[in-house]
Design brief:
globular; binds zinc ion; about 675 residues; alpha/beta; 21 helices
Amino acid sequence: MLTLWTACLLPALANGAVWKASAENPPAVTCEKNAAEPVAFAAAELRRYLGRILGTTLPEIAGGDAQPIIHLAVDAGGDSTKEGYELRAEGPTFHITGQSPLGVVFGAYEFLRRHGGCRFADLGPDGEFVPHKERIEAPAAPVRMEPKLAYRGLQFSFYEDPELSRQRIDWMAKNGMNYVMYRPAPEHLPPESVVTVDSDTGEVQKPEVCNVYWWFSKSWFDKVLRPEVRKRGMKLDMNHHNFLYWLPQGRYFADHPEWYSLVDGKRGGRFSQMCICTSNPEAVAQLIQNIRKYLRENPEVKVVGVIPQDHMAMCQCDRCVAGDPNPADAFEKTSWKTGNRSKVLRYAKLLNAVADAIRDDFPDVHVGGEAYHDLLWPSRDVQLDPRTVIWLAVHMRDGCRPIQAGKQSAANDKIFAILAEWKKVYQGRLILYEYYMGMNAQRSLPYPMSEVICEDWPHLKKLGVEGATVQCWTSNHSAYVLNNLAFARCGWHDHVDHAEIMDDYLLGAYGSVGEQVRPIFEGLVQATRDLAGGTSAMRPSAGNVRYFLDKVGRDRIRQCLAQASQDAAGERERRQVEKLVAAVRYWELAADTFNCYNKAAGLKKSDPRAGLQLLDELLEETWPELLKYTQPSSAPGWVCITVPSLWERTRKSAQSLREELRTLVAAESPPP
Ligand SMILES: [Zn+2]
């Protein structure tokens, strides 16, 4: 039913009919009484935002003939798995018609963006620009949109601030994203590492001590985040290293050790990667039974991942090895470069068994699989069921150049070749597992990829890649939001103009002072462009921050921030600039720490006394301030909860270097 909306612009200009509403004559937003929850939600959102834009309360029901109406509905003849929508006016009624309830939600936000002037740039009300207008006008001719990528998702893997987490789901819907990937804590985790909900009282239980960060239980997700997903009609992907979620060793190992991999002569010798004995039919049957139960209880789950645990292992039992194309594979060290043909085959057979077992009862559910580590290449021995969604992890990518052949990047050439190999033999849905936040290694410091992302997707789409699940956190969403905005837009448009993304971000996140902070963000993008012009690759590393700050210039950044602080209009803009000021201070302290440490290490031989002095300054002056800014509360949304533990490693290195230098200095000048 739907075609490219651009094709429909010309008739709109030709017939010139325009739908109008104003503060004096505000629209009534209507939908069927028994409309699905997401449709009613979209109507409430339209009322809320249009009321703010026009500065008035919208009428509850439609009045006379001249009363403008916005009517929301789902196209009755549509395919409910689709997510497109049509915007079109007929007389005084503006129709937002979705192919599904989620399509209506996307259509409502697009109406607010396109005709209301809203920009949903960052988390929560502070991250959005909502203009004041006397009138709203929209061309009557139909605008039809359908996503260009089937999978547009972010991840929720650990317990983070509940309010910010809810805001991130809201941000996803506003920017046309559809899949929430989540990973509830498996049974074997100790209770002190899991935030859960008391089954009697319904209260959230948070352990007192936290070493690094908490996981969340399924009950916590169901209570706090799942309602947000459901009310918007979004889709859940239960995914990510979850073999042991489906077959918990605590529940089954004592009675059935033979269900788990034989590694180095021991059943359950290592609960890593392919830790299940997949040639054991009872083990596979139990895993499938548990998955089917989960799908019955969780109808929003549209992708059910069956994903090996992290790290490396596979079963070495006779029955497993007997089915291997190469009997040595189970005993050799393999990597993503070599691949492991036998492990790939075992995994493909398991995915096919699950896909087969859910096909009839859950026709709209896909089985998720991974292409990662030595499972990166497709199987040469068996066809994967087309009802699978495989994410291919691109952890080795060069972030300053697009994934495209012939772009002076050996790593990206290789990824492109692997993707092409998959597309030759695989009929299912191939997506990327992307790292637009530069992994944990980046420590919430800048990783400006937004322009590269806009360059990536035309080529990836041509190859047949159908989207990405983006590894990301709630607590540093703002640090990488420009990257994710670029990806979200690529999900709906064939060609995305990066300048438009930048304009929307600056207006959305900073309102009237967007121009004052523009040189910071454009400077970062330019620095990535400069890297691509040279021969180096861009890979996740916290040390990158020194390059980026030098390129953009600390003085320039400070001037921009000072001007923005001075010119900020209203509390929202002031708060947004304050958060950016804190984030930039964190960047500076991080760069200072690395500079100081490297300089001190360099002085070890020539002048250990000077090196020691530098480390004293680092550990006694810079460090306490850095520590303050590594707390997510210093700039909510900018610094991830994993960051303090990563910096602790740096502190330990600095301390041991200090001890070393002290010894050298003492040897140089023995006491009199
Ligand atoms: Zn086995």
